[in-house]
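Give me the fold.
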Amino acid sequence: MTACRLVRVVILIAMSTSSVGAESASPLSVPDQSKARIVVMTDIGGDPDDRQSLVRFLLHACDFKVEGLCTGFGWGHDKKTRPDLIREAIEAYGEVLPNLRSHRRDYPSEQQLLSLVKDGHNGDPHKVAPGMDSEASDWIIGVVDDPDERPVWFAIWGGPRELAQAIWKVQTTRSAAQLAAFKKKIRVHSVADQDKTARWVKQHHPDVFWIFSERIYQGFYAEGDQTLVSPEWMERHIRGPLKRVYPADAHKKAGVKEGDTPSFLYLLPNGLSDPEQPEHGNWGGRFVGSGRGHEYVPAQDLLNGRPDLLYTIHRWRPAYQNAFAARMDWCMLPFGEANHEPVARCNGDTGLRVLRIPATPGGKVQLSAEGSFDPDGDQLRYRWWIYREAGTCQVEPTIAGAGEPQAVVTLPPEASGRTIHVILEITDTGKPPLTAYRRIVLEVGGEPVPPSSNVAQ
């Protein structure tokens, strides 16, 4: 780092810590209350892409309150659980942890993560019943029972049996009110519902919040720009101790596969969305209500004018792959030689929450990214755009200054009674370039005008 750039970094960090509120006290950490509580449930040991996803998860462990790393079975694995593979990856993470903490001080310790490894039941992967409790299912009950009022997200990479067993046990040992309170804290992002217990939960407990990621997860690696998930990309960017626990060939695909990764990218506190609103869409995909209980299923976004299921994920691929490459750099490089995400602000708001702004049909809304900055002193590029599919207005507004720090959105008269999602992307000029986000939902007053066509869902 040059002396000039070092001075800029010191000044920017000083500015952020002196002027930003408690919600974002530093550009180099995420406030605890902005982190999702998460339990990973993996059939690691079967399809190798679970091992790939685990490496990326560990590099994002500072972005979550990690509550459990549980083994189980799924499509690729139904013989014997492999908690040893989780521990192996955590030990590799431990080798680079001191360097990671020079970039983000809130990475959890190796010992803390090892204490969260819980083994699932090595029995019938499709059954919940007496005698089928496991270390993992009992641990899940304790996590949900914790007085922390935030919901617990279950990123399920295989089958949900251990969670289903936990719900079954609470159902059979507690009152109806206690069961309801238990289920109210559960959030599920299930990759493909890989055992029969998913059906059991949905049939008997339809009030459980359940994102069913059916096929959409393939958008992480299929379609889109294949150079960003190729063996060559992987060879360039995945290095150091974590490389030895990141398989080069992940079941019928050489290179980056990571079909389970969207389950936790969905929860990243990067200003792009509210996880409680699956219709918003983010790095983990976009979802809509199925009409069956509290279940959400994949939505479609428009790619070249045509609805495309996988595009809801691979539209973000350059950003999430650059983020992965940067965090791999964090494992090896000192702070001054690696890149870090910008800090995005909108209309003076310094947090990460979705901004909701009332608006008038035919009116104008002024938006400002003033105060956004880069902790490395890099230049920033601005982009304001309408995420049409996430809103309910079929006529797209115009944006003046779409590539500037200040923008003006002009609403069409047809927007009456509708919502419009505006995305602010701020990308730095570092290597690799990294992007920060803010989402603004314009809530337009008036009675809804019947749409002339339907948004792709």
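The domain at 342-444 is CATH 2.60.40.10 (Immunoglobulin-like).
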